[in-house]
């Protein structure tokens, strides 16, 4: 049984949230569509009237100064933000046409389709092999041969197989920071997601490891939709197709990356990308 079959068999209760036709734009499918999203942490208004469409198999970069709501927005897309008790939201986010903020949408289902990679590599204190096999095992896969296949495929997919294939039983903590981050990406790939969220995935890494992850992202977008928060504007310019500039909880401008960096329409975008603040 492959993981896809296992995922289907996992028997998620059919959700009864509103289903909308999958939106298209410029012949590209919209994976995540955000309409008038507001989010508060208690009385802190962290996201204000966000409207943003994320396209399938593109790299979407989110840039903006510290505290402007980038991580909050990312964590709203997989509903991780709900872990904060004081959070409340208004507005609509659809994932492939289905409203995810609705209570009827099973969060477990969302998390198997929308993987996340964090700023600081966070492998489990387990072997390299077990880090990757963890998700598939949760999905009920016990067959050693299938697990072996998933582990190899995921590690290859994250460009780290050759570096670890002879030490799969060793603890993941023995890897370098850059390797740990690629391992975490491999762990995400092992659950066969559709979207990968990345929150400043290279900010704790040296330039060489950063370069490897950037190359990897270019490969991954053939198969996945990627949303990456980065405070590194050169990185956004290098690897993304579209860029959203956040400021004080608002989206100031969202456009093709080339346009944002060469011909922005808002003065504040221009000031930010030319380094006048932030
Ligand atoms: N768990 C939380 N509880 C209360 N306020 C928070 C929490 N997380 C973030 N915030 C606030 O929300 C705003 C946006 O934060 P964040 O999304 O982390 O910004 P960024 O990722 O752009 O640096 C900030 O004002 C921050 O202080
Ligand atoms: Mg952040």
Automatic annotation (TrEMBL):
GO terms for cellular component: membrane. It comes from Oceanobacillus limi. The keyword Transport applies. Pfam families: ABC_tran. This is Phosphate ABC transporter ATP-binding protein, PhoT family. The lineage of its organism: Bacteria, Bacillati, Bacillota, Bacilli, Bacillales. PANTHER family: ABC TRANSPORTER I FAMILY MEMBER 17 (PTHR43423). PROSITE patterns: ABC_TRANSPORTER_1 (PS00211), ABC_TRANSPORTER_2 (PS50893). Keywords: ATP-binding, Nucleotide-binding, Transport.
């Amino acid at each position: 049984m492959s993981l896809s079959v296992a995922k289907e068999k996992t028997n998620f209760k059919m959700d009864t949230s509103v289903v909308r036709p999958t939106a298209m734009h410029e012949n590209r499918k919209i994976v995540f569509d955000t309409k008038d999203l507001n989010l508060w942490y208690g009385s802190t208004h962290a996201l204000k009237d966000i409207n943003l469409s994320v396209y399938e198999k593109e790299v979407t970069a989110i840039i903006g100064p510290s505290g402007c709501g980038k991580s909050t927005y990312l964590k709203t897309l997989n509903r991780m933000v709900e872990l904060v008790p004081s959070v409340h939201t208004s507005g609509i986010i659809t994932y492939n046409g289905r409203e995810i903020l609705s209570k009827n949408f099973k969060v477990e289902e969302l998390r198997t389709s929308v993987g996340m990679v964090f700023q600081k590599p966070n492998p489990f204190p387990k072997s390299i092999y077990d880090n990757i096999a963890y998700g598939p095992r949760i999905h009920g896969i016990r067959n050693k041969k299938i697990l072996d296949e998933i582990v190899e495929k995921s590690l290859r997919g994250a460009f780290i197989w050759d570096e670890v294939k002879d030490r799969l039983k060793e603890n993941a903590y023995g890897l370098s920071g850059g390797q740990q981050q690629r391992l975490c990406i491999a762990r995400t790939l092992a659950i066969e997601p559709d979207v990968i969220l990345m929150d400043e995935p290279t900010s704790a890494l040296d330039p060489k490891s950063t370069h490897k992850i950037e190359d990897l992202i270019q490969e991954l977008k053939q198969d996945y939709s990627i949303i990456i928060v980065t405070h590194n504007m050169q990185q956004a310019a290098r690897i993304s197709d579209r860029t959203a500039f956040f400021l004080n909880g608002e989206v100031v401008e969202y456009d093709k990356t080339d346009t944002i960096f060469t011909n922005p329409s808002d003065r504040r975008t221009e000031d930010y990308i030319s380094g006048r603040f932030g």
